[in-house]
Amino acid sequence: MTMLAVDDLVAGHGLLTAVRNVSLSVAAGEVLGVIGANGAGKTTLFRTLSGVHPAASGTIVLDGVDVTTLSPSRRVTSGIAMVPEGRRLFVDMTVRENLLVSGENGRAGAWSLEGVVAALPSLAPLLNVVTGGLSGGQRQAVAIGRALMSNPKVLLLDEVSLGLSPVAIEGLYEQLTGLKGRGDTAMVVVEQDLDRAMAFSDRVICMLEGRIALEGEPQVLGRQAITEAYFGLAHQEVTYA
Amino acid sequence: MLDALIQGILLGGYYAILAAGLSLMFGVVRFINLAHGDFAILGAYLVLFAVEVLGLSPWLAVAAVVPIMAALGWVLQATLFARTIKGGFLLPLLTTFGLGAVLQNGMFGLFGSDTKSLGNHIGNLSWASWQLPFGITVGQLPVITFAVAVTVLASLQLVLSFSKLGRAIRATSSDPEAAELCGIDARAVHRAAAAIAVALAGLAGAFLAMRALINPYAGPTQLIFAFEAVVIGGIGSLWGTLIGGIVLGVAQSFGATISAQGFQLAGHTVFLGVLGGRLYLAHSRSLGGWRAVLPMPSPPPKSATQLQQATSEGRS
Q: N or C: which terminus of chain A has fewer CB atoms within 10 Å of its end residue's CB?
């Protein structure tokens, strides 16, 4: 069942078109990995999906409902939650308050504070700690928990492991694998670590200069093809006008 | 001396009510409302209107006017303030400066230029006092004003700390875009903050009119006092505004014992002193602080997260 369907999406910053005619779809319980070099348009794509960046054209359909013109907060209540690049926690509030804010204002659903702490056990001892003092891995876990509290149908995770220690990344992916195992939430994940992205995703899209250069199941595509798409080696016939 | 101190502290209660709204608007909406003092005077005139024309009792009139002022703040944020914020930092200042002029002249047109006071309508409360031990006398109205200030600030603090709206307000003031990504309608939160701020201005104006004479052009002076209280107490801190208000009130009160003009002069002097001290500290900190001149190994630099934690603890 398709949870998120994006059709011919275009978004840009002034004269620069960062996302060009991107179409993608994610089913419930599926993990879609987004791979691409810096400047490929991944973050702009995510910001457009979550509504903090306007779409120039194209449609975003969530569970059969067109959300293209909704404000970010209305999209959250419709069921799109994003873990933004840089976590963007409320640094002068505690972990508990960060989670509650999202739970109180997001979509109604099954996730509760207890449920999120059970799914992300690393949060349990931190609930009353102000998030400004947390480590990068702890902050990322809070950001994921905060997104879950809004009961998303589609969870967008931007730069999951950026700036985290290997141990923190390992712990985070264990918890994310647990989430994936529940099979009720569609996930779209930006991950710079290619091995990690290929292992965790059911399907990957590879972005190059705002376009989808390659799409498919990671094991079928193979590392070589993905690497070539990442660096644009497979597209030397593209002319720049 | 003790008498001036007590008078000053009680006067600080009035400044705290006035300044809390200004501080809330700046902290949450990042909006400087130069018409805040005029809203206070408008609130006072509305209370006077309810008492003199509609014949309500003064306290009932205050209770009726505060929600009206809140609605006014909500509407202004929705229709005017939110639009001006998009136009850069200068536009809100110009707009509210102009709005202040509109309010002043509108009140002049509607209510005339006579100075008025609620003092005539609150019976002997305007001069009644309580005798305390050690020969101290405190006026009942200042004590009531101070008690209302503490109650208002405490309830506001409770709302901010423990309610859904309060968490949404704090989240929006910390990072509006991240708040949107949590499902919070930041514009609705801004409207709520503006409603609270203008309601507080109206409440402060009512207490001003009970204690003193007001006229349609009295707003800007009150705005300056509110700004001074906010700056002395620290922006974005509710209890800071109370402390700022008390410091300002005590300075004015002591100034008034020296000479009649000393009331204003001492308040402004303390404000400028605090501002100068802050600037000096910030400047010397940027040069390495006083430790830099000592021939000692410098202490390890604090990390950014530690600093953030320290400031956030200071605010909560």
A: C
